[in-house]
Amino acid sequence: MKVRQDAWSHEDDLLLAETVLRYIREGGTQLAAFDEVGDKLNRTSAACGFRWNAEVRNNYEQAIAIAKKQRKERKRALDRMNKDKGTSQEKTVSQEAFVEETPAPVYIEEVSAELIPSSKSFSNPINNSITLEDCISFLSSLRHNDFLSNQLEMENNRLRRENESLKQQTKELEKRLEKLSDQQTIIQEDYQALVQIMDRARRLVMFEDTEDRNSPTFRMDKNGNLEQLAK
I need a surface site. Which of 2, 83, 169, 213 has the fewest CB within 10 A? Predict the structure, then answer.
């Protein structure tokens, strides 16, 4: 079977699927994903889009749903992060205004100690708000990568088994060919011997016919004498 030079391989399909799923998770567009894959595979983005919609997409329906869910969770985490950041800035401004309006220095220190959050509690609210989402995204990506790795391993094992089977068939055919060559040599030798036997038999018959024609023929006359007959 001839394979087209521009045919899509299994590795090309995996690269296309991974790139599109990554763009979906990160909130990008599929067109941008097709452009990236096209640059890597030296294909047009239209060809990548056609391959995705016609062949690859149907094999990754569940992965697409997970990627869309991760995109929503990522968006909610960013919204919470921006909201927490705005709230912390408002608290800081309020505390500074309150300190400026307080007349007694001692009271200022006490109020500051009570109202201003400690370094431990105010260390990084952004990181605390997205840690769980990052873990979910990481675990989902890890599971997806494990699934793709298992598929590649299964495909590799299948190709290895096919290769071993073809090697075995090649060895058997080579043995059969060698056996047929030996048989052909034996038949050729037997044929030559038969030709020689037939040639010797033909010469022997010709020699006997010649002797019969050359030998004289006699007969006895009425007086009891032998006389040679003319041929």
Answer: 2
User: The tokens of 92 are what?
Assistant: 């800081």
- Cα separation, 92 vs 134, in Å, equals 28
Which residues are within 8 A (CB) of 64 and not within 5 positions of it... i.e. 6 or more apart? 21, 24, 57
44-50 contacts, C-beta under 8 A, 24 or more apart: 48/16
The CA-based dihedral angle spanning residues 66, 67, 70, 72, taken in that order and rounded to the nearest 10 degrees? -110
Q: 88 near 122, Cβ under 8 Å?
A: yes
> Residue type at 69?
K
pTM of the model: 0.37
Q: Cβ(97)–Cβ(164) under 8 Å?
A: no
Residue whose token pair is 């997205």 = 130
Query: Which 8-state DSSP code applies to residue 211?
Result: H
Q: Can you give the residue ranges of every domain in the chain?
A: 10-174
How remote is the C-alpha of 115 from its chain's centroid? 62
120, 128 Cβ separation under 8 angstroms: no
> What are the pLDDT digits (tens) for 188-230?
888 888 888 988 898 888 876 666 666 667 777 778 787 777 6
Sign of dihedral through CA atoms 82, 83, 87, 93? positive
Which residue matches tokens 């018959």? Answer: 205
- Kindly state the helix (H) or strand (E) to which residue 27 belongs, with its residue range: none
84 in Cβ contact with 158 (< 8 Å): no
